[in-house]
Amino acid sequence: MQPPADRPTLYVNARLICPASGRDEIGSLLVDDGVIAEVGAKVAPSARAETIDCRSHVLAPGLVDLGAFVGEPGAEHRETIEAASRAAAAGGVTTIVARPDTTPPVDAPEIVDYLMRRARDTASVRFHPMAALTKGLAGNEMTEIGLLLEAGAVAFTDGPRSIASARVMRRAMAYGRDFGALICHHAEDAELSSGGAMNEGEFASRLGLPGRPTAAEAIVIERDVRLAALTGARYHASLVTCAESLDVVRRAKAAGSTVTCGASVAHLTLNENDVGEYRTFFKLAPPLRHEDDRRALVQALADGLIDVVCSAHDPQDVETKRRPFAEADDGAIGLETMLPAALRLVHSGDVTLHRLLAAMSTRPAEMLGLPGGALKAGAPADLVLFDLEAPWVLDAATLKSKSKNTPYDEARLQGRVLRTVVAGRPVYPYG
To answer: Which SUPFAM superfamilies does this chain map to (predicted)?
Structure first.
């Protein structure tokens, strides 16, 4: 990542939105030495500072994307840290939190150190690795949580793999609790969902495709929240996709467990019908669900039950997507489209802009213990400036990711990133 900007920058005439404080006003923000020096309706002009007129566009904390797949090491043909960071910057994401399911997986301190060094050399945004929860992502033996935390890991997960053994999961949670570590889990019973290509239901039957039931997700989350209550661990269900899972999380939170959950932008804005005529760019894991489940997710986000909205960025190359639907690999890219796609929920009146930005910046930063996620003096100057109303049509060929497997190709979107700032230095548009 680049060093802070040398010259102060004063952003004037901005709609300042800070989910952490509830701020929503027209005002100014002064950046000096990589941090926010002043913010509010009355910030004195500075002769030293470069002045940028925001023209009443939204200036908010930069987004923190929890759980993106970045191909290094081992899958650089799908994505690199450099390409992912450029895509992130174009989407207003100032912090990438990367999954550990690389080759080799991030299950040892030296691999965490390697990734941190690679990020320092090639990333234009902040980059933090998550470490594997079990060695080799095999679900059998725990990793050295303490050593991995010391090396720089910010959370623990087996990525897209679900840990089948309740005994292993309990031990991992108990050790994670002792270190204050966040345990993230992809909740899906592998046996129940085995061979499934999309959401189980009438639409899958009409297409002649095997289904993956919502019960496969809810059952594992039910087990996990009980283990979290038993151990006192900090547990995060990485992706909830159905009403059944939301009911489990709601009960766990009401009982006082330290349980959180996330949802992807795709599951909040798309449903199983978007698969249409076997469109493989809509083949995700977990799969897109019924419209009733999507609406339940949106309501849960509006109510604050869903803590985090993420991109679920999962690049795939052309060869793995240009196959019959049942044989195509799961996954879609999402770093660059995360904010504009999510703004559909704001324009529809289903979710407030404050609530959305809280789930995309403030809350994930809090959960991971990262600085940022707020517009306040002394906070890192990680910012996104965006036009809330700008209409545009997405052309996948222009996306910065190495892979182009987006479900939003040719979609009409409203809201576009104008400027992304990390440590006071603009990283988008590119100089």
So the answer is: Composite domain of metallo-dependent hydrolases, Metallo-dependent hydrolases
Residue 31: which CATH number?
2.30.40.10
Q: For 142, how many CA atoms within 13 A lie in the half-sphere containing its CB?
A: 18
In a domain, 321, yes or no: yes
Taking a C-beta distance cutoff of 8 angstroms, is the pair 169, 194 a contact? no
Same domain, 148 and 82: yes
Per-residue pLDDT of the chain (431 residues; tens, 9 = 90+): 666 667 899 999 999 999 999 999 999 999 999 999 999 998 988 888 999 999 999 999 999 999 999 999 999 999 999 999 999 999 999 999 999 999 999 999 999 999 999 999 999 999 999 999 999 999 999 999 999 999 999 999 999 999 999 999 999 999 999 999 999 999 999 999 999 999 999 999 999 999 999 999 999 999 999 999 999 999 999 999 999 999 999 999 999 999 999 999 999 999 999 999 999 999 999 999 999 999 999 999 999 999 999 999 999 988 899 999 999 999 999 999 999 999 999 999 999 999 999 999 999 999 999 998 999 999 999 999 999 999 999 999 999 999 999 999 999 999 999 999 999 999 999 75
Question: In the chain, count of helices (H) and strands (E)?
Answer: 14, 19
pTM of the model: 0.96
User: Do 54 and 176 sit in the same domain of this protein?
Assistant: no
